[in-house]
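Reviewer comment 2.1 asked that we show a complete input and output for one of the modelled complexes. We chose the GLP case, as it is the one discussed in the main text.
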Amino acid sequence: MTLRVEVFASADWADRVAGRLAERIAADPSMRLCLPTGSTPLPVYERLPALLRERDVSTAEATVVLLDEYLGLPAGHPARCDATLRRALLDRFDAAPAFVRFEVDELDPAAACQAFSAALDRIGGLDLVLLGLGTNGHLGMNEPGSPVDAPTRPVELAPETASAARGYGADPPPTRGVTFGMGPIMAAPEVWLLATGERKAAVLQRALNGPIDPDCPASYLRLHPNAAILADDDAARA
Ligand code: GLP
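Response of the prediction step:
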């Protein structure tokens, strides 16, 4: 078990992470990739389509899996995670990858989670999971209190998680969501946790050096056989 921590200067972080991701997709254009929303990956997503174009790599054979979704926002709402990822990345690729997300408009939340897990089984699982880091230590919407084997499921959101949706006009913000579970995240062959900015410094230290327990789901990544933290120097500053 090794949790690698790689720290890049803030000015270079997005170029380095986007470059690494582009290399991965170039090496395996049919890769199955789970992606988060949130503000952290945005500069990576901004750079990725051009890097793939430069390398003449198509995303037509790739599969993108969305990490989590809010409940209670109508289809197309700009704060929805599916809308956010489309806008930030998927719509900017030359060729649309397959997109697996939670079908929260068609199915009840528990059934949407089952359908999501079944879709992942059908594609044969994931190659790589990218995650953001909640200031409370959450991964996806696996909030503090989530056990290490928590399945993909409907969840109540912590207030700080919910309030992130307000920035995209969801006011009042959603209080519930559906998330890829902590258990299947731990079972993924490779995980990259992205963390930038001073506001993540305390929780990153907690995840790396505090107890491995449900108070900080990110601490579980220390038990993962192939996880890396890709941080900028502001987040990595103790
Ligand atoms: C959100 C999402 C997570 C995201 C995290 C960090 O609530 N559910 O998937 O990674 O919080 O967000 P940010 O990158 O904006 O700090």
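Residues 60 and 97 are 5 Å apart (CA to CA). We note this here for comparison with the apo prediction described in Section 3.2.
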